[in-house]
Amino acid sequence: MITIHCDNCERELELENKTAGTKVACPHCGDINRVPEAAGAKPARADKAAAAGLPPDHGPEATVRTLRPCRVRARPLSFTGVALVMIAGMVGVVMGLTSEGREWLAILGGIIGVVGTGVLVVWWLKTMSASLVVTNKRTIMKKGILARSSSEVVHDNIRNIQIDQTFWQRVWGVGSIGISSSGQDGIEIQLNDLKGPTDIRKVIDLYRPL
Ligand SMILES: [Zn+2]
Predict the structure, then answer these.
(1) CA-CA 20 to 30 A from 58: which of 28, 134, 198, 209?
(2) How far is the CA of 26 from the centre of ligand 1 (A)?
(3) Position 26 in a domain
C-alpha cells in the first residue's frame, strides 16, 4: 500500500503499489494526484517531445516556442477599418493639396493620418509588450513595457490548460490560453490573441507527465 495526501483536499488516500508513478483521481474531490515512483524504480516515462522532434524532456533547458499576441489577425475588422480610414485621409491630403480652396481637406486628411498611425503604434506596442515562452521545463509569460512582470508554470505542475475562442476567433485561428497549476488557485498564465492556441497546448502537453 502507498499512502499519499491529496494535493487539493489533503485527505489521506490509500493506493495499491501498482499505482506508483502514475496519476490517480482523488475519490473525495476528483483532483488528479501524482503517485511517487516506488523507491529505487527508474522512471519509465517515454519522451514524447523528443519523439515529436522537439527538444527533449530531460537535460538542459531549451526554448521550444516563443509567441507574441497577433493584433492584426485577432482584430481583422478593426484593422481593416483603420487602414481604410488612413487611406481616405491620404486621399484627402492629395485632393486638398491639388485643388484650389480645399486646404481644409488636406488638414483633415493629415489629422486622420496621425490618429490612425497612433492607433497602429499602440497596437504594435501592446503586441511587443507581451510574450509567452515555452521551454522544455516550463512556460513563462512576460507582460509590460516599462514595468515588466513575468510569471511561470513548471510543466510537471500544470493542472489545466484552458483555450478560449469565440466563433470568429476559431475562424481566424486565434484565441486565449490560460494555464493553472496544482498548488495555486486560479489561472497563473493568461494571454489573449495568440495564434494557434490549440497547437501551443499540444506542444506543452508533450512536456507534461500525462
Ligand atoms: Zn481530494
Answers:
(1) 198
(2) 5
(3) yes
